[in-house]
Design a protein that fits this description.
globular, Aldehyde Dehydrogenase, Chain A, domain 2, 18 strands, Aldehyde Dehydrogenase, Chain A, domain 1
């Protein structure tokens, strides 16, 4: 069996990789399992130095890694470079803060001494997606390895080259060779990997069906999981919002990564008083974006990653139009090679349409009208997902109250697009998954929070 990566700009094959046999995969898991015992005994200072070096390796090779992302999944070069910089940031963040996060905590009880300590769980399996092929991996790896765990990466097949390159980053930085390993294996052969007793826990970023499948396999053998799944993020535009800034943020948050991100601004919910003005500004903003070859420095929207995903998105658009949505921009698959889809804007969108009810993973923005603030918040929360949400208003007190108490999502922003940040916990509720990544909360997901009581 083999895995072939495809250039989404041309539809042509890039490289073919041999899939590992079950015996080869078991050997990798065993080697990482053995390495973890020594790795857990290393001093924080040693781990800190290695992650600082990893950050240097990433920055030194930024152009190479950005080019690989452009080739494998169509990310424009500038976006790829920014992703590499963010990976370096998360490496440095945990190098600087993991020791503090994992310092034993004394608890006053009737005991002579009682405290809480944090021990690594062991080997963490990461099942990672193609859309941010470097960032998703490093945001798992930096806290997990700094906590004393070791990592095994099963990357999306279409970004197998990224998996190989990321393993090489750790080698170049000086990590022991079996502290972090990639396995090249198709999704249908992952059951035995998840169930292997030397795997302590699993983290997955991906689709809802993938999350359900992995969680079921892990639960059957009582393994901890963290899931970051899909989203249908609402961006609520109140009548007192700065419409220029709101339109800029909303469009940027929808077209980032060609719309292929879980925290994209998938539904613009606009109070009717400013609907017409907001729509005009959104159209102006969308027209500033350039679709084309991700290696062209002027391009800001590349191709979608696969023809099948483009067709799925197009069907969501067509079905919504058939149900009454209006297509203001885009909505037509272009002629020519590659898996391009134009930035598309649908208005008059209502509940019951695919673009309202489902996650849309591509460059399709929708405008939904609300009578007032109350209805806007009701519409925002009327979704099975709960990853991110945003509200735009000049009334900061009101915006803060809405974000903190009235929007149902894991990450709620005021007057800004939803984004991940190493300093803040990231994750969702409802069908967007469970558990948290990043910050102090993320590093505690894969440790044994141990009580020690001394009489």
């Amino acid at each position: 069996m083999s895995i072939t990566t495809i250039n989404p700009s041309t539809g042509q094959p890039i490289k073919t990789y041999r899939e590992m046999s079950p015996d080869e995969i078991r050997a990798v898991i065993e080697a990482v399992f053995k390495a973890q015992k020594d790795w857990a005994g290393t001093a924080f200072s040693e781990r800190e130095a290695l992650f600082k070096e990893a950050a240097l390796v990433l920055r030194k090779n930024k152009r190479e890694y950005a080019s690989l992302m452009a080739q494998e999944m169509g990310k424009p070069l500038a976006s790829g470079g920014g992703e590499v910089d963010k990976c370096a940031w998360v490496c440095e963040y945990y190098a600087d803060h993991a020791r503090e996060f994992l310092t034993p905590r004394k608890i006053e009880t009737a005991a002579q001494n009682s405290f809480v300590t944090f021990e690594p769980l062991g080997v963490v399996l990461a099942v990672m997606p193609w859309n941010f092929p470097f960032w998703q991996v490093f945001r798992f790896a930096a806290p997990s390895l700094m906590a004393g765990n070791c990592g095994i990466l099963k990357h999306a097949s279409c970004t197998t080259g990224a998996a190989v390159a990321i393993e090489d980053v750790f080698i170049k930085a000086g990590f022991p060779k079996t502290v972090f390993k990639s396995i090249i294996v198709s999704s249908q052969n992952m059951g035995a990997v998840i169930e292997n007793p030397m795997i302590a826990a699993v983290t997955l970023t991906g689709s809802e069906p993938a999350g359900i499948s992995v969680a079921q396999r892990a639960a059957a053998v009582l393994k901890k999981t963290v899931l970051e799944l899909g989203g249908s993020d609402p961006y609520v535009i109140l009548k007192d919002a700065d419409l220029d800034e709101a339109a800029r943020a909303c469009v940027a948050a929808r077209l980032l990564n060609t719309g292929q991100t879980c925290i994209a601004a998938k539904r613009y919910i606009v109070v009717k008083d400013v609907m017409e003005a907001f729509e005009k500004k959104v159209i102006q903003e969308i027209k500033k974006y350039v679709v084309g070859d991700p290696f062209d420095p002027t391009v800001t929207v590349g191709p979608m990653v696969q023809a099948s995903l483009r067709e799925e998105l197009h069907q969501q658009v067509k079905k919504s139009i058939a149900l009454g949505a209006r297509c203001v921009l885009g909505g037509v698959i272009p002629d020519g090679p590659g898996f391009f889809y134009p930035p598309t804007l649908l208005t008059h969108v209502t509940k019951g349409m695919p673009v309202f009810d489902e996650e849309t993973f591509g460059p399709v923005a929708v405008i939904i009208s609300a009578q007032d603030e109350e209805e806007a918040i009701l519409l925002a929360n009327d979704t099975a997902f709960g990853l991110g949400a945003a509200v735009f208003t000049r009334d900061i007190k009101k915006g803060t109250e809405i974000a903190s108490k009235r929007l149902h999502a894991g990450c709620c922003f005021v007057n800004e697009a939803v984004k991940s940040d190493p300093r803040l916990p990231f994750g969702g509720v409802k069908k967007s998954g469970y558990g948290r990544e990043l910050s102090s909360f993320g590093i505690l997901e894969f440790v044994n929070i141990k009580t020690v009581y001394v009489k």
